[in-house]
Amino acid sequence: MSKDERQDRNSAVTQVSAKFSELWRSIRHDGTRERPAEEQNDLIDQLRNALDRKVSHFSAIRPTWIADSFAVEGIAHESDTTLLLKLRHRDLGSLHALKTVPPASADDAALLQRLREEAQIGLALRHPCLVETSALLRLPDGRPGLLQPWLPLSLASQTIARPITLQDAVVVLRRVLEGLNAMHMQGYVHCDVTPANILLQEDGVASSRLGDFGIALEIGQKHRQRGMAFAASAGFAAPEQMQGAAANPNQDIFSVGRLALRLIATMEAHATEKLSHFARACCLDDPASRPQSAMDALQLL
Questions:
Q1: pTM reported for the whole predicted model
Q2: According to the model, what pLDDT value does residue 60 have?
Q3: Residues in contact with 298: Cβ distance below 8 Å, sequence separation at least 6, in sequence order
Q4: Of the listed ranges 194-198, 222-226, 260-264, 296-300, the one predicted with least confidence
Q5: Buried-state track 14-38, b at ≥16 Cβ within 10 A, e below 16
Q6: What is the enclosing helix (H) or strand (E) of 75?
Q7: Shortest CA distance to 291 belongs to which of 213, 197, 167, 181?
Q8: What is the DSSP letter of 203?
Q9: How many CB atoms within 10 Å of residue 179?
Q10: In the predicted model, what is the mean pLDDT of residues 243-251?
């Protein structure tokens, strides 16, 4: 850096410092009167908002703001029916996920209604083994969005990347069953327990959570009552669920059995006979022969 450039930089720093001191005096005092702390904080919030808008105006990539608090950092997942956005809180810097519908489906009344119903279920469930919905927000174009914790990994992606240990498999199954027990106690059946719907932090399975309540039902309800001709994941759904039977908690138990078999197949070592027995018992075709509750399955595990 040349001498002239250093002088220009120092001059700019001096000017900014003087302007900042003047601004700070204006925030703290109204003439000779010192403003109350609440009034000062309100002015600081307004200044922060103004700076955010100015940065967005001059930035080459202008962030989209949701609820005036969350900046959209990118798209985490997109399908024909689901759009998952990665958000960052403007003040806290914390990461969040927002589940909505793709822009092309913004006028799909049935899809929007299912998203609102999913929000209703997510807002009612509070358990450390479930992905909770913090709020139902509205995007700038009017689409609804479910605000959820940011969980960047799925069990499906992890088991593909590397074998799972016996200990980790048992931790996952226990947490899934504990989350299902909380759901069943609230009167809901998940209906879609698969590795893709078990979400993780980067620190491993100890914080794994069961999420995605998009096809969850109240006990005794059928998917066609919610406008869905068919809703199930082949290979994990119970036979009676595949045939359109009313939702029953032991259908989730069947899915847990299938999940256990999938984990056993990807283990780096042989599973214990106890775990193999658990998997077979949970996914028996006859619903009456399976463990009848998540707590029964936990006892068996």
A1: 0.76
A2: 46
A3: 174, 177, 178, 181
A4: 222-226
A5: eeeeeeeeeeeeebeeeeeeeeeee
A6: strand 70-78
A7: 181
A8: T
A9: 25
A10: 93
